[in-house]
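Technical annex, item 7. During the second reporting period the consortium partners agreed on a shared format for inverse folding records so that results from different sites could be compared directly. Each record opens with the tokenized structure and is followed by the designed sequence. A conforming record, contributed by the partner at site C, is shown below for reference.
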């Protein structure tokens, strides 16, 4: 059984297409949220997920940008993100906004060999907002794991790939599909082989120039386009 992990698409249709070509044959796809925000193709991304979730096994949780756009809770966002949130609210269809509102904050998945995973965007302590960066001390990760009973904790939010293993348990972040922030501009995802429990992190090139062009054409902050080239 192959399990694909994706997160933080952020309305980047070009990056999603590139990643999907590589994960479409996985037995299940787990998404740790933020389908929207920042980028210029929110309706295309959400409609694609809506269609695919009717056809196959995909679990997706709500991220902080999904939440802000769906419910108008934009406090704490920087000016670039806030401008993007308001643009999304104007251009997204009612059906797509309703889809975001219905996404759960947590999802449980158990693979075919019985290993359990909890999907959450931020952390169990603050599901939408806490950042679990790889450089945090191990004591922080042990504290986070004390909040959950599952074998694996799957998170997003930081846009930085991460694997932390502690006493047979794991915290995994596949990185960001649509807006990587680890210095590598390529879209990021991960694959778990449930039979061996081996985890592989992958990067794939996509049409970053087209994604950036759409952001500028939509009159969103130019910074949101320029950062795509730098992977930050």
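Designed sequence (site C submission):
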């Amino acid at each position: 059984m192959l399990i694909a992990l994706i997160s933080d698409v952020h309305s980047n249709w070009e990056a999603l297409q590139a990643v999907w070509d590589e994960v479409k044959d996985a037995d299940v796809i787990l998404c740790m949220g933020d389908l929207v925000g920042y980028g210029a193709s929110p309706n295309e991304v959400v409609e694609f997920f809506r269609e695919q979730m009717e056809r196959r096994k995909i679990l997706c949780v709500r991220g902080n940008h999904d939440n802000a756009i769906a419910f108008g809770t934009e406090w704490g966002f920087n000016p670039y993100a806030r401008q993007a949130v308001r643009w999304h609210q104007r251009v997204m269809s009612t059906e797509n906004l309703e889809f975001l509102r219905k996404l759960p904050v947590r999802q449980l998945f158990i693979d075919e060999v019985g290993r359990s995973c909890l999907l959450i965007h931020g952390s169990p302590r603050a599901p939408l907002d806490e950042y679990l960066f790889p450089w945090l001390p191990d004591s922080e990760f042990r504290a986070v794991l004390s909040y959950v009973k599952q074998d694996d904790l799957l998170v997003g939010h930081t846009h930085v790939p991460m694997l932390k293993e502690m006493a047979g348990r794991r915290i995994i972040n596949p990185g960001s599909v649509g807006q990587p922030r680890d210095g590598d501009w390529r879209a990021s995802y991960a694959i778990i082989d449930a039979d061996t429990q081996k985890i592989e992190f992958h990067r794939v090139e996509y049409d970053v120039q087209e994604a950036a062009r759409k952001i500028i054409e939509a009159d969103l902050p130019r910074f949101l386009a320029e950062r795509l080239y730098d992977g930050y």
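The mean pLDDT is 97. The chain is about 35% helix and 20% strand. All partners now use this format for quarterly exchanges.
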